[in-house]
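Bumping with the actual sequence this time:
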Amino acid sequence: MCKGFKITFESFDLDNPEGTLKKSLIMEGKISKPTNCLDFSFTHEQQIELIQATLDKVLAEKSSLINKNTEDCPKCSRKLMKLGKHKSTFSDVFTDHEVVIQRLRCSKCGYEPATTVRTILGTTMSGQLAKLQSELGAEHSFRGGEKIFDRFSTKLRKINNHNRIKLVTEAVGDTLQAVNHDEKEMIKVEEAEELILNVDGGHVKSKDPDVRSFEVLTSVIYRPESLQTNSKNTRNYLSSKSCAASAQNDNQSEIIEDTIIAAIKEGMSPKTHITALCDGAQNCWNIAESLKPLCKEMTSILDWFHIAMKMQNISLPTELKSKFLRIKWHLWRGNTEAAITRLNQLISKVKSIKSLEKLQKFLIYIQNNQDKIVNYRERQKKGLVFTSNLAESTVESLINQRCKGQQHMLWSREGLNPILQLRAKINSEDWCRKWKTVILNYTDVTRSTCPTI
């Protein structure tokens, strides 16, 4: 027996499911015995064709309901007259469609109800497509996102060109920031007794020919119990965290506001103790200290990872290396006075100008952060956090992976900031909960302000 198949589309009245209103063939074919992995299922092109044909039918049914029961003019109450049909385009994740909507007009006052997809929905694309475009735009280059879409759609689609992905990513990122601030007063979570805060910064290349680079600030906050180790005990990771990032040149006002919101999401209250780890820059300490009035108390710690990295980048003659290691020994135990004394002694013996400059900068670094250097050895023994490398690198996950992976990329603060908002929410795992609200708000904005999207 030779078998075949038919895939059909049916529409029916929900009050009378036995009666079919419309029935049409979507796809038919032959069922044969599979011989390999290539002929067991539909081809990629056939799957897209099936989605295309099915959605064409569903969208035709839905668009026929638009203006269906609109009979009288809402302005003058005169009966509306039919004026042909209007065709407009609509794009979904894999397919593009032509939607037909009945056009109506009042012969007396000229009123016409909306008859285009964009005026009705606020956009010509589905919410799922806008979500995917903004995610790919946040995680890949815009041209890279275009290539990914083309590969999965099996063809070039204008809706997925790199400029469109850029526009959508920036618009969604800006909307996300507004929604994030609006939700601040509605956040309700279990109060946390202890929170860990990491604040760091990174530089990206600037589009401005007069400025080589500009700094991007990031923060991540989490509960101590969120720090987990994988099954092989080889890598630490955070099971839950909240992130913030900003490229704005606004005296840290945006990153401070977003860090406060992130802390509230993690359970910060007037009863919470916060351990803040920073790289030593004053702007990072400013962000951390903005939480002080909102929590019970704060322990500020100069991140050991940054101390070790700065020392690693200083090269010295073999005969002086043991003295330099002794300085590290004192710092590890929180003996800053002894470390500073030995640093001054070492500086007097170094002849290399390059090494001398690095040592002097390191001395200033230790002096400026002297009150935030703790007994790291003791904290390690007690299992307390003393360095940010126990968690995932905030700068690496929020900035470097997207902004520095391709060295030719140049950025403006305005162009980078929406991407950072998306990356912060995606890394916080907050995006899954919030994306529908953001997309709906985004379409409301684009309905009146962005006719090209």
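The tokens above came from a reply further down the thread. Residues 206 and 212 are 6 Å apart (CA to CA).
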